[in-house]
Specification:
The structure holds 2 protein chains of 2 kinds.
Chain A: H1 3-11, H2 14-54, H3 58-73, H4 76-86, H5 96-122, H6 125-133, H7 138-166, H8 180-191, H9 195-221
Chain B: H1 2-5, H2 8-46, H3 52-67, H4 70-80, H5 89-116, H6 119-127, H7 132-147, H8 149-162, H9 174-185, H10 189-218
The chains are: A mainly alpha, B mainly alpha.
Amino acid sequence: MSNWDRFVETFFNARVMARYWPDIVEGLWLTIGLAALIVVTGLIAGLVLALVRALGVRVLNWAIIFVVDVFRALPPLVIIVLIYFGLPSIDIAPSGFVSTWISLGLVLMAFSEEIFWAGITAVPRGQWEAARSTGLGFGETLAYVVLPQALRITIPPLTNRTIAITKGTALGSVVAVTEILGQASSAVSNSYNPSPLTLGAAAYLLLFLPVVVFGRWVESKFAWRR
Amino acid sequence: MIESFLNVGIMVQAWPIILAGLGNTILLSLMVVPLGLGGGIMLALLSTVKHPWVRYPLMAWVDFFRAFPPLVLLIFLYAGLPFAGLELGGFACVGIAFFLNTGSYYGEVLRAGIDSVPAGQIEAARSTGLSRLQALVWVVLPQAVRNVLPDLLSNTLEVIKLTSLASVVALPELLFQARQAQSLTYNPTPIVAAAVVYFLLLWPLVRLLSTLENRAMASR
């Protein structure tokens, strides 16, 4: 057997791939579901925090800033491990899926709050004052005048950050979530052949390459004209 | 609850283990940050070559490694390559994975920085007799770095946080050590301690970044 044949036999073994193909596809769907949950809950929580911060209650703002700092400073894997291995000792035992969801959701919440808040503060004060002087309330000013302008400039950084955090779903494999990497790893140990990892890698590229290219497009599309 | 998460006895017992982990996390960061930064500078300098034979493969390379979750890359190197008879060990795998992954991120940031330097700068530098590479390294790059400093710092924060992935391939950094201590003591206090150490280590950088980012967005 030539070296090339051996290479193909090892990393692109058709028999092994056919055998574990359904597992990887299952993992792919789980990854998509987990990512969707993280993106939706994380972004909503981040926006809510930023809006609360706009109210300008000092004690509340300190609390928000501290929480945001904590989840920006901690590595996501540390948060996942803390929730998954730590909470059971007070008789709360979230599954690996829930632990990963909560952890990455909190991380996305922290980063998106920062970005939303920076967007809100970037809108000139005069916009607030003008809107309020036309008789709009605080909430109306925020919803109809400030947010539409703020959101526009937050889109590029938000897109990139969301993509980066969504890729963290692979961390779930550490706490036994059967997403793509989890499925691929157990398939490798069952078949004693790394082809499932090749498949898994391909699945990640299939999922994230379009997203990365989309992020690049968003960045140029929404670039501020200088 | 205090018994579980902030157990003083266990904290005292686990402290030396955690401290050793902190040392290794710092060493690991001191290794992978320059490694990624070096890779990024190479990619960014290459991106100034506008020839299609350089430009498109370069873009594909960068997007490829940005689309790949770093943990997947690490596992592929660590668990996949040995089947091809290439046993690299956890440390080398972490080095290669970080070079490829974080190098691409640094490369993108620095490319944006180089794009932000006016073309007149390179023309003026060339006209004084500097070669193309000299002009890039001594004139354009310093200005580029200054223009994207917040993004570079933010990326560096992410890289340091990412060193926790090395625990998966059994490198004894902070998270790995904390988990060892946790399984020895049957108590999650060491993980809480590790989280606190990470927070204290990285909080100053987070604060600095937060200030820089708010300023950058406000000046638009």
